[in-house]
């Protein structure tokens, strides 16, 4: 079934010049870019996006990272897109990410790990509504 998911090319990957390669991987997988833009988010917005992580020991550092510079916010569409994008990204911890995944290639650490993707239909819907309320 065709669905949508929400992706972030995180500030580390933008700074390192990997935007074009990462977008190409989605397109070569047959996924369609519905909309995208570059933004620098505030700590308040980061708390809304990562609400389930607020209060964790790593959250202050995660917030600092996600607000440190421009990121690219993307809505993708395709068959089974939520699971397929998570597979293209690889594991959160890049030392556990499969070879050839975006995180295996570009993540420096479990925090600075290049990309975000929604993990369920519910999170995709709420993240798309948060980032693109007019979509
Ligand atoms: O991004 P993903 O869904 O794979 O992982 P998560 O467990 O939902 O964590 C969200 C994000 O928090 C990660 O992608 C990391 O950037 C960050 N994180 C961190 O900074 N330190 C941790 N120990 C775990 C996650
Ligand atoms: Mg997650």
TrEMBL record:
The active site is at residue 116. It is found in: Cytoplasm. SUPFAM superfamilies: Nucleoside diphosphate kinase, NDK. GO terms for molecular function: ATP binding; metal ion binding; nucleoside diphosphate kinase activity. Its cofactor is Mg(2+). The keyword tRNA-binding does not apply. Its EC number is 2.7.4.6. Residues 2-135 form the Nucleoside diphosphate kinase-like domain. It is an enzyme of class 2 (transferase). Homotetramer. NCBIfam families: PRK00668.1. Major role in the synthesis of nucleoside triphosphates other than ATP. The ATP gamma phosphate is transferred to the NDP beta phosphate via a ping-pong mechanism, using a phosphorylated active-site intermediate. This is Nucleoside diphosphate kinase. The gene is ndk.
């Amino acid at each position: 079934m065709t669905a949508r998911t929400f992706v972030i090319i995180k500030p580390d990957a933008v700074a390192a010049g990997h935007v074009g390669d990462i977008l190409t991987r989605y397109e070569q997988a047959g996924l369609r870019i519905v909309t995208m833009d570059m933004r620098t988010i505030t700590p308040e917005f980061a708390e809304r996006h990562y609400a389930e992580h607020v209060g964790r020991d790593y959250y202050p550092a995660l917030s600092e990272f996600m607000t440190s510079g421009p990121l690219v916010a993307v809505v993708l569409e395709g068959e089974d897109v939520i699971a397929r994008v998570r597979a293209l990204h690889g594991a959160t911890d890049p030392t556990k990410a499969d070879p050839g995944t975006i995180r295996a290639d570009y993540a420096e650490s479990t925090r600075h790990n290049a990309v975000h993707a929604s993990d369920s239909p519910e999170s995709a819907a709420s993240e798309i509504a948060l980032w693109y309320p007019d979509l």
